[in-house]
Amino acid sequence: MDPHLLRTFIAVAETGSFSAAAQRLSYTQSAVSQQIAVLEADLGTVLLTRRPVALTSAGERLRRHATLILARLAAARADVARADSPPGRLILGLTPLAWSSPVATALTRLRADAARLDCRVLVADRDRIVAAAAAGEIDLGLVDGFVAPSDPLPLPEAGAVSVAVSPAVVAVPAGHPLARRGGLDLGDLADAYWIDAPAVAPYTRLPVDGLRTGLRYDGAEVTVLTGLIAAGHGLAVLPAAIVARQPGLAGVPITAPRLVHRVEVLRTPISEEPALRLRELLASPPASPLAGS
């Protein structure tokens, strides 16, 4: 199967439209239709219904395989490119809330031991970092999220290792009536307005229904999010240590559901020495449960 045809197929499957896929890929709509027809002829089955555009059962199966195939091809390309890269390179990818004192300390120790290390940091949302790690675009990935104390992050592939666990709190303005509460049940906050910050702290991933958006923030700056909360534009669940450092904010403990903020390091298909060393530094000493991030 031609990888170009698989990419076109995935674009149609993800967008649900031949025209939208054409726009994403900078093709004409007729070119997209022709490529899907060629792929279907090669496999001898219909992959997509046309009106409406939807995956057939065979298309669903191909989508699972195609995603893995394209990820492995991207990882192979990235690994070959490393052959011409100078030694001592590290590309670190992380979600905004994954940056913490232990991460900063580990990176400082790594750079002190390797003064000529060529280091680059990519900050993006969790889906982007997970995809970049799977494709080999980054050497090490750190992602975060809010889960039950005994649960790992719900990642698409197993293999991540927890490096930090800290308390989760509801961040409110310091003068907010809730700031004086000793604890909060998130289910009781259905009438409150929340800030939807997909790249930083998406409330839609919290294990509670009925919360509503007061404002959407599409950036990745933690200080902007905390500033919006302090100005009264909505609430958010954040790590307690981050709230404690921000003026104008108060952190209210969450009594139900029980939640912690977890940071995990992703296993990448290929790791060079700087990434392996950073992983060791992050894992030693082991993070103690509910330690400040």
UniProtKB/TrEMBL annotation:
InterPro entries registered for this protein in UniProt: LysR_HTH_N, LysR_subst-bd, WH-like_DNA-bd_sf, WH_DNA-bd_sf
Source domain of life: Bacteria
Keyword DNA-binding in record: yes
Domain HTH lysR-type per the UniProt entry, residue ranges: 1-56
UniProt keyword annotations, A-Z: DNA-binding, Transcription, Transcription regulation
PANTHER family, sorted: LYSR SUBSTRATE-BINDING (PTHR30346:SF29), TRANSCRIPTIONAL DUAL REGULATOR HCAR-RELATED (PTHR30346)
Family from the record: Belongs to the LysR transcriptional regulatory family.
Protein name per UniProt: LysR family transcriptional regulator
